[in-house]
Amino acid sequence: MTERRQCSNRHTSPTSISRRRAATALALSPEHLALFLCAHGAKHYWERLGWICDVGRLLQVEKTVDWTGVFAEASETDTSRILSLGLLLARDLLGAEIGKRRRPLGRARRQLHAAGRQPRQLRD
């Protein structure tokens, strides 16, 4: 059985301690994993379906994520669109359930559609 324990401060310690049988390992908390997965996918222009699948799997497996905190942190770090895009891709392409995260995503969807209508710059 897996036991997780959150480390002290979300700003200084974005990790959880995961114990599985006899092994103990530090891992990103589900909240920070969501931010990381979405930032990583966006950095690479979501070129691989596997990166969207990772976000979808996180949504499927982690039922106790503090999404209010995730969106607050994304807002603080100016990555709300990145987070929202990753969640929307997982929902639209994979049918991932986003449940209670609907309200922040509605605003993000409008922002993303507006950004899509703006001229795009070519990648280097």
Spans of at least 5 consecutive residues whose pLDDT stays below 50 are 119-124
Q: Determine the number of helices (DSSP H or I, runs of at least 4 residues).
A: 5
Order of helices and strands: EEEHHHHH
Mean pLDDT: 78
Q: What's the overall geometry?
A: globular
Radius of gyration: 15 Å
User: How many discrete structural domains?
Assistant: 1
Strand arrangement within the widest β-sheet reads 1-2-3
Give the tally of β-strands: 3
Q: Mind describing the biggest β-sheet?
A: 3 strands, antiparallel
What fraction strand?
A: 5-15%
How would you sum up this structure, described in words?
The chain has one domain. Strand 1 (2-6) and strand 2 form a beta hairpin. The relative contact order is 0.12. Helix content is 55%, strand content 14%. The protein has helices at residues 30-43, 49-61, 67-76, 80-94, 102-117, and strands spanning 2-6, 15-20, 23-28. A three-stranded antiparallel β-sheet has the order 1-2-3. The protein is an alpha+beta fold. The protein is globular and about 50 Å long.
Tags for this entry?
alpha+beta; 55% helix; three-stranded antiparallel beta sheet; globular; disordered C terminus; 124 residues
Structure in a nutshell:
The chain has 124 residues and is an alpha+beta fold.
List the helices and strands and how they pair.
Elements: E1 2-6, E2 15-20, E3 23-28, H1 30-43, H2 49-61, H3 67-76, H4 80-94, H5 102-117
Antiparallel strand pairs: 1-2, 2-3
Helix pairs in contact: 1-2, 1-3, 1-4, 2-4, 3-4, 4-5
